[in-house]
User: What shape does this take?
Amino acid sequence: MAQLSDRLSLKIKKTILSKIAVGLIRTISTTLRLELLGWEQYANADQKLIFCGWHGKSFIFANQFRRRGYWVIISNSNDGDIQDKVFRALGFRTIRGSTGQDRGGIKAALQGIQMLKEGGTMAITPDGPRGPSKVVQGGVMLMARKSGARLVPVGISAKRAWYAGSWDSYMFPMPFSKARMIFGEPISVPEKASEQEVEAIRLAFENEIERLDQLAANWA
Assistant: This one.
């Protein structure tokens, strides 16, 4: 009986926290003066794409891509349960797992590949959900390689923001701050590429996300 009560209490807590998070994202995002660079080539693109920005910048990322029916990957943790509710409330479709190459990551990647082949678009954090920060995980490369989808690097920053002491230094933009998202050129991963070639592409992609992130930060 106690265990049932604890599970119910946890479920209620997750629901309340998710509603608070959705409210904050919607409220703060309406005040941001957000500038988009490079978005025009993707706004109405009829192509398979995986938008990738760092985990610590997903606040602005989540709001910009809301209500588009994009797919996101959410971890199977308790925190992931809250994030799942948040992203679904923002109009995303979710896959539970990770972007790594553990058992959960491979399962999520296979689901992602199927969704991409069916014409879906993904918006994910390639260094999530546990890091290390700013390191592109293998699951992202697998999805791009097997689905034929192209990887799009995204740099994000806000002029005024608070940064959490978490592994990803999560950024919470301040209300009415200027913010910027920079969309880079798409990168393909050939299906028949060797492991060495995939690793070279992974490193180049990782560096490009960070370059755009720094470019956005320097402007801010």
